[in-house]
Amino acid sequence: METNQTNKLNKINKPNDTNDTNDTNDTNDTNDTNDTNDTNDTNDTNKHNETNNISVLESIKTNYLSWIFIILSVIIISYPSIKSGFITFFIFLLLSYFSHVFSHNNKNIFTIIHHYHHDNNNFFSHFSQILFELSLLGILIPLHIIDTYIGNNYIDIWTGGLYALFYSTVHNYNYGQLRVNDVHYLHHKNIFMNYGPDICDITFNTKHPDNKEVENTNHYIPNIILSSFFVLFLKHLCNYENIKTNLLNIYFIIMILIILFLAISSIYLYVNIDTKIY
User: Fold this and answer.
1) Residue 35 clears pLDDT 70, i.e. is over it
2) How confident is the model at residue 52 (pLDDT cuts 50, 70, 90)?
3) In the chain, at which end, N or C, are there fewer CB atoms within 10 A of the end residue's CB?
4) Are 216 and 63 in contact (CB under 8 A)?
5) Residue 37's pLDDT is what?
6) What's the number of domains the chain is made of?
7) Are 166 and 220 in contact (CB under 8 A)?
8) Which residues contact 269 (CB under 8 A, 6 or more apart)?
9) Count of CB atoms within 10 A of residue 204's CB?
10) Is residue 192 part of a domain?
11) Cα gap 253→250, rounded to integer Å
């Protein structure tokens, strides 16, 4: 009788022993996966440090043609406040880069839309991202008012508008629709590299290791030209006081609608979407 009871107990314990073994194996597999991921991250970092020795000067030399178009556009649009035009352009250049970096290093209600854009490929993802970028236009008038009040005259609203249109069309059309190269694709593979524009990634050492050469930015040129014509047309219309008043009213209405849309969308995504995407 005792022998039979012992045998029964052994049969009961065997499955448990098997489960324990499976749990241990699962844990080991998970640890192995984590170790592999850590190794890959380390390899990417080492690879990044070894390969990205591109200089800013090399970038400018390679892309002299697109820089000529940018410089001419800023001069024409900001005239006669050319100094303010260039200051504004480079403020917005740095602002677009660092705000992009911030959005990936901080996942919160203010950046959730951009995280959603990286994790989804649908109309809402792209539409909200476009509005997210165009919301940069919302700071133009306040910056201009503050700048004028202080008496510096460093901000040119037309150049700021040019940059916002140029940046958004390059991101969403050139990279998103035309896929002119793999620069932005690699950013979606590794969200901590290739933030763009390429000259900023070179300057701040965030260029993806697989991009061993300077990005050819000649594909910027049509965006610069079309954005410049659009801004020049609006600037011309503002020579007429009644039209200028109407355009300002339209601007404020559009900015309010964009901000409302982004606020409601951000709250919805933050509440309903798992915040542990990455």
Assistant:
1) no
2) low
3) N
4) yes
5) 43
6) 1
7) yes
8) 112, 113, 116
9) 13
10) yes
11) 5
